[in-house]
């Protein structure tokens, strides 16, 4: 009788094995490293059933299986449920993993293509990391509406249905940051109820960013809030409870960081960011507003003296410093001229010729086109040029003193 039972068991096992083989691949693995990578690869492919014959050791196996889902933060938050089981003995262990996913492989592939298309539209090559983060934040807030039915929760839903709960907002921001190679995290916690948002790293500093809370409910056309944009832990903790462990900390406010960048780099991009986010443009040492709003030019140890006959430097609509062409270049010792036929200002210095076509976002340096991020222009009958690119073309270093609002030009 025992033999009959054994024979029946063997037949059942053979039938079962044949059935499994027909519907899923069984992997043969011998090392912990290969075990982890095989499981992760299958989870990335959104497989729901993973069968493995493991010839390694039982010692530490449970810790390995329990820890796999924590190897990848994005994967962790796009798996609905998963469970594992194993049977066998040392050197011959059958492992089975069942997983459900919030997003399918097809939906993920479609989302990745869509993300690339969007980033190609909203991101330009000359953007700073700060500008890229804001562009992605604004796109999500303007194009996704909160799902009050609490049905949709992935980046696919946010992209193709234009609606999602917080999960989809955070996943979409995460994936866009990944594509831009900007360090990003997902943060689990609560804000009245269970909630998820992001952290992003810029200039070696991590900030909290909650696109869900920056999206007005009900949805309002073309309206973006920055109340939950680039916050410190202290700032976000006013109404968010952080449950995630081992998250990075910062006490430096984003407003302070931007002001430091203005002072240290002179890049008017950061002034524009300060203004668009509703921050104050202040000196980071004294936290006081500069008394003199005039833009000064300090070139080669001397201030350039401007008056009404030449015009005065100013910040244009693209937050770039424009300076009167002739007086500025002549103070540096350049020979200047004007080609009326092509409406081009010309400056020559140290065997370098810079041609500045009016109304164009480029200059020509010794016959080579150099792209600019704003246009030269004529204002009140005077020719103005974007100072940074022109000065750098002559080999000068351009800086910025935020306290006195002075462009610094040095050799």
From TrEMBL:
Coiled coil: none annotated. InterPro entries: CAP/Cytokinesis_protein (IPR052557), Cu_amine_oxidase-like_N (IPR012854), Mao_N_sf (IPR036582), Papain-like_cys_pep_sf (IPR038765), Transglutaminase-like (IPR002931). GO terms for cellular component: cytoplasm. Pfam families: Cu_amine_oxidN1, Transglut_core. Residues 159-213 form the Transglutaminase-like domain. PANTHER family: CYTOKINESIS PROTEIN 3 (PTHR46333). This is Transglutaminase-like superfamily protein. It comes from Dethiosulfatibacter aminovorans DSM 17477.
């Amino acid at each position: 009788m025992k033999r009959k039972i054994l024979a029946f068991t063997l037949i059942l096992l053979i039938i079962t094995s044949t059935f499994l083989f027909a519907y899923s691949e069984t992997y043969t693995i011998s090392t912990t490293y290969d075990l982890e990578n095989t499981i992760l690869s299958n989870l990335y492919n959104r497989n729901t059933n993973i069968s493995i014959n493991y010839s390694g050791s039982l010692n530490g196996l449970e810790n390995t299986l329990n820890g796999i889902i924590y190897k990848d933060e994005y994967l962790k938050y796009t798996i609905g449920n998963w469970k594992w089981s194993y049977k066998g003995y040392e050197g011959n262990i059958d492992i089975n993993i069942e997983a459900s996913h919030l997003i399918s492989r097809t939906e993920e592939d479609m989302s990745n293509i869509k993300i690339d298309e969007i980033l190609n539209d909203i991101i330009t090559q000359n953007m700073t990391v700060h500008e890229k983060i804001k562009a992605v934040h604004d796109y999500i807030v303007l194009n996704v509406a909160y799902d009050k039915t609490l049905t949709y929760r992935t980046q696919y839903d946010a992209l193709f249905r234009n609606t999602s709960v917080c999960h989809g907002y955070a996943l979409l921001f995460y994936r866009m940051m990944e594509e831009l190679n900007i360090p990003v995290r997902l943060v689990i916690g609560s804000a009245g109820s269970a909630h998820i948002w992001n952290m992003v790293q810029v200039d070696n500093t991590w900030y909290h960013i909650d696109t869900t809370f920056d999206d007005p409910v009900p949805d309002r056309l073309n309206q973006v809030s920055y109340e939950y944009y680039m916050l410190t832990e202290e700032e976000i903790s006013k109404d968010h409870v952080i449950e995630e462990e081992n998250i990075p900390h910062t006490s430096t406010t984003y407003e302070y960081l931007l002001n430091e960048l203005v002072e240290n780099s002179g890049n008017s991009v950061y002034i524009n960011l300060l203004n668009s986010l509703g921050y104050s443009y202040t000196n980071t040492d004294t936290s006081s507003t500069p008394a003199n709003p005039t833009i000064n030019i300090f070139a080669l140890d001397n201030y350039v003296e401007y008056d009404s006959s030449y015009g005065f430097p100013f910040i244009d609509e693209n937050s770039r410093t424009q300076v009167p062409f002739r007086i500025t270049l002549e103070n540096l010792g350049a020979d200047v001229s004007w080609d009326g036929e092509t409406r081009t200002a010309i400056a020559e210095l140290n065997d370098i010729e810079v041609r500045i076509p009016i109304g164009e976002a480029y200059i020509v340096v010794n016959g080579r086109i150099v792209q600019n991020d704003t246009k030269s222009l004529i204002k009140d009958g005077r020719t103005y040029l974007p100072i940074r690119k022109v000065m750098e073309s002559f080999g000068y270093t351009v800086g910025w003193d935020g306290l006195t609002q002075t462009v610094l030009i040095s050799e």
